[in-house]
Amino acid sequence: MSDPPPEPGKTMRALVLLAPHRYEIRQVPVPRPGPGEVLCFVRATAICGSDPKVIDGKIAGWPPGYPFIAGHEWAGQVVELGEGVTGWKPGDRVVGEPHKGCGTCQQCLSGNYNLCDNYGRPETGHRHYGFKSQGSYADYIVVGARALHRLPDSIAYAEGTMVGSAGVALHGLRLAGVEPAATGLVIGPGAIGLCAIQLLKAMGATRVICVGRAGARLNMAKQLGADAVVDVLAGQAVEEVLDLTGGRGVDISVETAAADDGPTNAIKMTRLGGKVVLIGFYTPPERTIPLQSVVLKQLTLYGVKADPNSYRQVLSYVEAGQLTLKPLLSHVFPLTDFAKALDTFVNRREGAMKVVIEAES
Ligand SMILES: [Zn+2]
Ligand SMILES: [Zn+2]
Questions:
Q1: Among 30, 196, 243, 312, whose Cα sits 20 to 30 Å from the Cα of 22?
Q2: Distance from the alpha carbon of residue 164 to the mean position of ligand 1, in angstroms
Q3: Domains and CATH numbers, the chain
Q4: pLDDT in tens, 111-131
Q5: What ipTM describes this predicted complex?
Q6: Measured at the alpha carbon of residue 30, what is the angle toward residues 356 and 42, in degrees to the nearest 5?
Q7: 20 CA to middle of ligand 2, Å?
Q8: Which residue, among 107, 93, 196, has the nearest Cα to 154 in the 3D structure?
């Protein structure tokens, strides 16, 4: 059992963005849960690769304006239920999803709430926490009840913040489909890539190759199940992967690195008729890829946005011991040290991987 969450006062601490790359910790009103919403105490938030872009205001519309509170990979506890919410009680341990669709558009009705037709229109009920709506770099957050999932007692809050990273990998692999006994490839041994390695195995692949820069992350890829690792900087990565697969290429490749040559390498390393899963956040947005190879090799490319419908499965894999998130957690900071935490994450200091902001109380 866990300690009860602290009673909210009228105000709370929050990391408030004031302008591109300008933020400070301020006292702001504790948000109130509306109908269908839940007020939660934030126990932990992981810094996501997209957070520095939101903080720097590099992507149009994220945030929609200032002041703004970012943060979306969080875990915590239920504090108060809004009107009409059932199934939760104060103190329940939860992990929150970043996307909550309007619930009524064709995409939402099809389960694709990450692609909600009413994206960015809060009056329809759509929310994208930490991007378009208030996020979790604060003591409390209000979220729609359907964006919450029960966090088992066996999974720590800091670990719970990483369910979304695994969820992105799971969503991509599920979109493409992992064939029994497939050979998989993961480009980029970051948090999502390291989850993809484990999930490929859990979902039926018998062999996984990981391509990345030689170092601690590539070593961790091996520890977490990669059967072979290839140093991308050695200059022969495509040839090496082809050698490792008898010249055929892999059945399914997952590109998470977003490096300049990542998508092209994935295309070259994948077998005839194979699948290429693109998860990287590509900035700048345009890349040159060998389209003729896509056609002549009859490849299928999958774009993957976020982590819809994945939390229950990810938590189940973690509980079953088929997916471990703990090794991805490298640093923990209090909210008051956010600048140091961000610097540690962005500049990968001391081998930083997942950097988590934890509540002190
Ligand atoms: Zn994220
Ligand atoms: Zn919708």
A1: 30
A2: 7
A3: 11-162+325-358 (3.90.180.10), 165-303 (3.40.50.720)
A4: 999 999 999 999 999 999 999
A5: 0.98
A6: 25
A7: 29
A8: 93
